[in-house]
Amino acid sequence: MANQNQPLIFEQSKAGRTACSLPELDVPEKPLDELIDGDYIRTEVPRFPEVSELELVRHYMALSRRNFGVDNGFYPLGSCTMKYNPKVNERAARLDGLTNIHPYQDEETVQGALELLYRLQKNLEEITGMDAMTLQPAAGAHGEWTGLMIIRAYHEANHDAKRTKVIIPDTAHGTNPASATVAGFEAVTVKSDENGLVDLDDLKRVADERTAALMLTNPNTLGLFETHIQDIAEIVHTAGGKVYYDGANMNAIMGVTRPGDMGYDVVHLNLHKTFTGPHGGGGPGSGPVGVKKELAPFLPKPLIVQKEDGRYGFDNDRPLSIGRVKAFYGNFGINVRAYAYIRTMGAEGLNRVSKDAVLNANYLLKRLSETFDVPFKQFCKHEFVLSGSRQKKLGVRTLDMAKRLLDFGYYPPTIYFPLIVDEAMMIEPTETESKETLDAFADHLIQISREAEDHPEIVQEAPHATIMRRLDETRAARHPILRYRPAQRTE
Amino acid sequence: MAGFRYLPVTEDDRQAMLRTIGVDSEEALFSDVPEKIRFKGDLKVERALAEPELLRFLSGLAKKNVTTTAAASFLGAGVYDHYIPSVVDSVISRGEFYTAYTPYQAEVSQGELQAIFEFQTLICELTGMDVANSSMYDGSTALAEAATLSSGAVRKKKIVVSETVHPEYRQVLNTYAHGQHLEVVTVPAKGGTTDLESLRQTVDEQTACVIVQYPNFFGRIEPLKAIESITHAIKKTHFVVSSNPLALGLLTPPGAFHADIVVGDCQPLGIPQSFGGPHCGYFAVTKKLVRKVPGRLVGETVDEEGRRGYVLTLQAREQHIRRDKATSNICSNQALNALASAVAMNAFGKKGIREIAALNLQKAHYAADLMKKQGIAVDEAGSFFNEFMIDCGRPVRDVNRALLKKGFIGGYDLGRDSEDLKNKMLIAVTEMRTKSEIDRFAEVLGGIIHG
To answer: What ipTM goes with this model?
Structure first.
């Protein structure tokens, strides 16, 4: 049944059905054209479907069966931290008192919400070693841009207008250079050395009086710890720049080390990664930004503060602030989930999370290291990168192996990223997976490699067991069909 | 505490795994973290709570808030108390949807991809545009990205925005503009809508786009026809409309007025107020601009066996391919909330979407008429949708505190944004407000204002 095409909801429409129950108009009705100028009354109705509630439910049940989440199975998508999303978080975020509140209510009527946000800020400051925090950014990339705008405002306040460059490692996620551009900077690349770490000589070469900042995650995008982080920070600081921590990989280091202690000036976190906000099929996320004292005046406004009388409120009186980065105060619902998670784990639990995440990654790396090329030899942190170059020689590409994993009920790792590793496969198991799951996954991946030797076509033609075979992406891009149009289908 | 319920690795597992790795202790795995930067001791975060304790604690915080379920709310200004069909939460609570990520592997993500494809279609239908993306963070960032798109597409740096656009949206626009070296010029309001004469004088050859809101921040229907002709009198200049999608169930869509970009927030359609987020921005454009759209797009295609399916498409625009040359830095979107909105729109259907908009319109006008009868100064110039302005003649904050004592959440204090609007309140009336609530509210409000 799941193999059958699920018709679009529009194709299931039948005039006269409905799935909503609106209250009757209980006030005297006036003719529309008495209320609105006729030019602004819609003549053509939007072609929304007409379905009953059960049909609607069955439609989305069918779609859900055609989708794969962490609740379905192992999802080792590198750099995305696809850990378990606790059910209690969902319950918490749906509490009436946290859901049905309006952002413009009087402060006195939302003290509970403000207290929760304030407590979350304090916890995140402690975890990152930062002095102040904003919860306003909606996602990681939004946080990156916010952090860079803060650094920009700082340099501007110092009348240091020539700082137009942001240094970014060649391993970095694509959002780093894109965020730098959106913040009005020029992205400059620093190379990685043979150990997959920032090449200090190259950094010295590119860091100069035009450097506004370095963006660097640690562990870096290869899952390796930048051992020389203090030297790196010093090189950038000596050049007059700021050091920016991309918190995508925070899951490896909680309670082990803190960006603030490594020499970072600005941090963004992905609450939807480390702190269990569900990924939601692509969002919503939440990307708080923390800064050292010196940069605190530039944080977006308003900030959530505790007043002298112990009550909570907004601080809008921030003349040096970069301004607003989003309407209202950030993705509150995601922040509630992150707070619930921190309060579930506590200090010991968060530290255990990072230790188990690193243990799981190293264990899986070890199990796979005979079968696949391992470009970097040191211990990894919470994730690692393999190369499919050995299998490529057999005519089987990393993409093929990824598709074959689908047949065994796994979501594949991130592939072809980072860009500096040939046929890259980036694996992040997370701490919420058991040894049994890791063993089974390793066995299957080793089996796939064996198939690549013995029956390459099985892998090349994968997936076989999914509801769809490989989809034609070229066709989709060449002749874009981005919406349903009834005229297209007159059958 | 008995153990951590999200962590399955046992002490036996740990020892076995360390043996396989070939180290004595887990400490060895962190040998690359220099001693000097090691964190010593325990993080000073709040203590861990067992599940029942956690729920009790969070419920305690929640109870400190006055909710729009407990007090009838007349507060809007960009976020509204609307009916959300129960089916919405049921769908988005499916683990297959909410625990998945961006559908990179199309073969096992057809559900999400198809749901987004349907969302894109619904937004196109509502706005009258050719193409809509898979969603943006919210309405304010969608608006700022529209300005960025226009500036890049027409290679001009001047952004003209009406003062009647949501003040926080304009603040976000200013922050983005500063990064992009764009000049933002604000056209003043006159009688509650954009001052057309001033607009005519401001729009020139350097103008990348003109941005207005429809209905505008004060609830008014902007004269899109006239604004469009002023905008498009300059060759290439984009006409950008930020629009409440629920209102478009009844109002002529911006696409019919030749808008180039239509943005807004889907919160009114299936998404709770949630103290301002997460909501869900939408972004729709004409066919001509499809390759400049920020964020994810889902397109239809076929698989190897010719079956219809869906994939992420036109990715050459995006940051993971183009890096510093991308059309935007956006990576994630608000997929789960886009799903919620799509479920709500489908539940409303062709008739319901118009009906819910009509309920808002009728009830808001009934409320305004009633307040006039109470002797309250209701601003009457021009037509409005579900919001209108009154003059309280005294600080709105005080009025709202008095209203709260009577069980009402009052309107938005317009004096927050402008000294000129001191004592003015913006009142929203949605389909959720019953006649008896409106009657009582008008009476109480009249009493407070005249008292």
So the answer is: 0.97
